[in-house]
Amino acid sequence: MEENFKAQPSNIFLCGALKTGTTWLKSLVFSIMTRHHFDDSTNPILTKLPHDCIPTLEIDCDINLTSLDDTKFPLLGTHLPYTCLPQSIIDSKCKIIYICREPKDTFVSTWHYTKKLGETISQFKDNPITLEQEIEWFLEGKSLYGPYWDHVFEYRKASKDHHGMNEIFFLKYEDLKNDTLSYVKKLAKFMGKPFSKEEEDQFVPEKIVATCEFGNLSNLEVNKSGSHNPKSGIKVNNNAFFRKGEIGDWRNLLSEDMAKSIDNINKEKFQSLIWD
């Protein structure tokens, strides 16, 4: 990966563990960054999966990423933990936007996503995983990108470090969901692309929010029938990236004991970063 890509100070990385809202975040950030290049009807988000608009470093690292170093399009995504980021990202001091989500909702979203993978990936189809097994692995931190709690904690800690490291916008999915417009404006400012007064008067931020509204994205033809086929050769139906996007959906799946087991780790690991 280090051979194919060297981060530049102009890069902006969108980071987050799996199923924490990165697909939605990519659509918002992409629309903010490219708003001067496309109008409402030509935004690529309307015809492409957000993950095809903003590549994921560890999945797409074998493609030519040098063109993405240009300051006109500096966006890249990754699910890597902070301590596993390529050294060039740290050295470049580029900006990072990190999104996290209430752990129970994260787990439930992961569970449904895994089931969706069974539709196109034989490994998941031939060896279905039970809910009980999946939650056991989640609690033990057995996942592709390591323990969820460590993933969040590392970025949280880095976001509070003001000694020359990366500038990090630490974002909770729930806050973005409950006050999308306000956070779109905050993200634009953080990215160095603040909305002008003229744009505010023309309701450009509101238009971005409307275009990237979860229901609107999930109903786009590309996200209902298309497929994401990264260079890794793993084909995933685009609809696997869109389910409900709701806060508190864990209540429809988890037993009381399952919920408590996750909450206990929340209290132990997060302390000041507790989800109600």
UniProtKB/TrEMBL annotation:
**Which key words are in the record?**
Transferase
Q: Which residues form a coiled coil?
A: none
In its UniProt record, a GO molecular function of this protein is:
sulfotransferase activity
Domain (Sulfotransferase): give its ranges: 10-271
Q: What class of enzyme is it?
A: transferase
**Keyword field contains Cell membrane:** no
EC id: 2.8.2.-
Q: Does the keyword Kinase apply?
A: no
Q: Which domain of life is it from?
A: Eukaryota
Q: Name one Pfam family in it.
A: Sulfotransfer_1
Q: Which family does it belong to?
A: Belongs to the sulfotransferase 1 family.
Q: What is this protein called?
A: Sulfotransferase
